[in-house]
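Aim 2, interim progress. The first record below pairs a target sequence with its structure tokens.
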Amino acid sequence: MAARDFFKDTKREKRYFRTRIYIVGLLVLLCILVLALRLFYLQVKSHDYYATLSHENRMKVVPIPPTRGLVYDRNLNLLAANRPSYQIRVTPVDVEDIEQVITRLGQLIDLEEHHLKKFYGDLKRKQAFESIPLKVNLSEEEVARFSVNRHRFPGVEIIAHASRHYPMTGVNAHALGYVGRINADEMQKLDRKDYSGTTYIGKVGVEKFYEETLHGTVGYQHIEINAQGRRLRILESIPPVPGKDIVLSLDSQLQEVALQALGERRGSVVAIEPATGEILVFVSAPTYDPNLFVNGIGNKQYAGLRDDPDQPLFNRALSGLYPPGSTIKPMVALAGLHYGVTRAKDTIWAGPYFQLPGNTRKYRDWKKEGHGSVDMLKAITQSSDVYFYTLAHKLGIDRMAEFLAQFNFGRQTGLDTWGEVKGILPSQEWKRSAHGQPWYPGETVITGIGQGYMSATPLQLALATSVLATRGKGVQPKFLRAIQLSQEEQSVNQTSVARSVDVTDESHWDQIVEAMTDSVHKPNGTAYSVGKNASYTIAGKTGTAQVFSLQKDGEYLEYNEEDIDEKLRDHALFIAFAPAEKPEIAIAVVVENGGSGGVAAAPIAKAVMDHYLLEDEYAHQDSS
């Protein structure tokens, strides 16, 4: 009854109706206001942002990789080049069924597991309109087979590109290093803007150290695409800036001489120009072909190199640690003179062995009957172990370590490459830190002949030899000789002094050099076999480093090479500089398990020095 009365009240009904109209009208106005505000935000305030998105919806930026800089040796022989190569690329947006296309392509070209793994990894990271390399460095036969069947593969094309190539194969592998395809881990660390479109990056050696110089600057193409992501036209192109060419101090001919002299043996040769620190020779044997790594090495090939017992991938020159053996005797002798522990003419009786006071252990000489009465000159010339056992005991380990550190033992040389190890220069503090144990006098004795904890790389030995050659004026070793800025300009790498060796009397240098010269040119010298017919003066020192200790009841046993497995035989070492009166080259040679330094290592150094110092003479003989 009440509801019927309400609807019969027309005034009241109209008032109620008008209220609802007002509410609805207010809501409509509010919605219009919200739309207007949103329109203002989109059309006015955010105009630039959405205009850019709209523009990008029809435009894409495609990177153009730069050409990598070339690498030359000191005589401008090409060590690392770029040569034309072909790669097959897939553009996902143009392919209906990628899995099926890859399967069909596998019938035309040789696709290995690492090719597919890399392709599918790139497929996840890149946009659909970007072409992705499936295989690089195609053979001519593969290019021909695909070209005939190209009509069957829309979205797949073969393009030419510049691929890294090392003309001298493995001659410079351990110095130069190599480039390889960028992996996922490297891509996470790189600036993607700088490496857009780039396939390769320096992996080791000089190629890695000078990556920024060699890489160049990426270029770009602004292209117009349709809604499906297909390329319509190029709107703008910014060319890439090629990487800079670099000139290294290496002499590639000397590199070949060193490798040939080493032959089938494992070892290393490092030679330095003493006045500048420039690396002339940097060889590790056996070597390998770096071209295998450029376009992605297969699992089988890599396993063959990795599992080879001779370790061709191991950079012995930079990372191989060897007891320096008797090659450090000239430096220990110089320490004795510097600290006043002995004088060059002081003599001792160097019998068949040395014993510490109050100790029954015998430290035997390499010469069974000993050397008799010797002074410093004779001790270096004939490499008397007993003399240096005695001298080391007088010096003490800490003074020896302090002095030898000036020759850069126990630290990295700072060579412009990647992967250098620092070796070990033992001291009391070092042993406490490394082993938590005290130092024993017997350890000082064997350190005096370069055994025990002490270890050094061939690079460190060569640098120490160059310091001897310059009478203590050590310079920074380096590979880089110049950077090519343009066809007319180049930036030359300046020589920098790394450190100097301080001695109390400059005449001490002459005494050590005289002894090293006698070691090569006197009939009783340990390296006389290479010095007797030399046409220039050589200052050198042989070394033999034990791989393992022959002991029984605390006494060294007689070494018989024929009874020992080849891998356990002594390493052969030799250091030298020449001409002794005005050095132009300093060299260190290590032959693993080679036995005598005078027999195995010294002839290798002589072959390298002959070629370097007598090259003009050889050239004259050849022409006549």
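The second target in this work package is listed in the same format:
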Amino acid sequence: MRIDFETCPARYRHWTLATEGQVAELVLAVDETGGLFDGYELKLNSYDLGVDIELHDAVQRLRFEHPEVRSVVIRSGRDRVFCAGANIRMLAGSSHGHKVNFCKFTNETRNAMEDASAHSGQRYIAAINGACAGGGYELALACDHIILVDDGTSAVSLPEVSVLAVLPGTGGVTRVTDKRKVRRDRADILCTTEEGVRGQRARDWGLVDEVVPGSRFDAAVAARAVASTAASDRPAQDSGMSLEPLDRHFEPDRVRYSLLDVTFERTARRAMITVSGPASGPPETPDAIPLHSSRFWPLALARELDDALLHLRFNEPDIAIVQFRSEGDPALVLAHDRFLCVHASHWLVREVRLFWTRVMKRVDLTSRSLLALVEQGNCFAGFLAELVLACDRSFMAEGRFEGDNRPEAVLALTASSFGAHPMANGLSRLATRFLGEPEHLERLRGETGTLLDADAAAELGLVTAACDDIDWEDEVRLFLEERASFSPDALTGLEANTRFAGPETMETKIFGRLSAWQNWIFQRPNATGPDGALRLYGTGRRAGFDRERV
């Protein structure tokens, strides 16, 4: 079964999106029979990947299609339950790879909510009217403000350790300790107490921001939503960018988009993503941007690349190496890059740039070896050069090759290369690449806007190697063959370590711990063995644990 990440509000089965003026409501009422796979029911507003695909789509649409919305309330459409978190039977029946990718995607979606709050003027409010457990509380933790009804039963909890022998590792522990700065011993109690924490105690510990009685709950939520709009710089206009369906076609060994071509060499376990540059320059002003995403090249490309990355992650698990190449006029790419930089304060331009940042973070978090091929006729310039800088290795063609009349390969940095699209560590890819050479960044600033040939790019350290037509095929082939011979587990660990040098942030902690905790704990017999807690959940049988600590 191919998992499709494209949807729209008319197709939602689990969420309802409604807007009224500057306030939007996202109401979760999960269809119990609407699971993405067979074998489980989504009871108690629990979720699987399908539920989060809809949430991801809603967050995107609120940012692009609703410029007027300044605050978003997330609440439950069910009585006495906010969200029970990830569905346990779904997790127990899923492959290990799906579990890890599911956790990664849910966190990326929550990061997008936090990004909207930090950079787009859309503040999120969680209105908790019942049990809020595990991933449900992690959803609330991604919000700016949490309001809990004080009815004697509603509580927040992270019960994974006590119930499932796993961890609230999809950002739960990290957001409690790093974002809400809950005291260590209190966090320990929260994570080892199945029933959770309720009422004033939850407020006193910093687990929620407000506790209000049921009689005032709706009024308190409405008041907070209105108050949250005051500091936003979102425009008053009520028409935004239409995110129409993607233009894509699936074939046995290929996925064709309007601006991307993804081809597969399945026996070699490789994929090639070819990016097409723009056919024309940008509009004269932001007001002239066509309000259809398919007609504005930077946004259309970002949407298609995001979809392609998710397709590779979930539907092509055997692909080990992803190669990036591009085709087009670098001058037109530089023109679009200048347009985005000059008009960065315009709400729609800002959203496009922020979206490209999120897509590039998705590239960084791809558990595949990444290779950039900077060939003749490429257009890796400005923000597109981020794809080259994100790769584990990069080869650039030197000069013209015999029989090839395309323009010589070039690479160009712009102002956007120096911080407009930061990695999860908060640094630009250039700053991360030259972490031990800060003075080199100043030299690179002097090359801004220059079309660098292969020799110059290699001398500046922007690519791994420059290869002429004699060495090109052999150098690329040797790298691909060598990479294919290594352990994929070892490569995943190696790549994750080398990609995220520099400072630790809440975001790097979340994904670093996710990789370590989930990859290890989700495979331990205590959780997933025949007598593991995850396997026996709901059966009435007690789990059998190997008590050795290692």
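DSSP finds 21 helices and 18 strands in the chain. This observation will shape the mutagenesis plan for the next reporting period.
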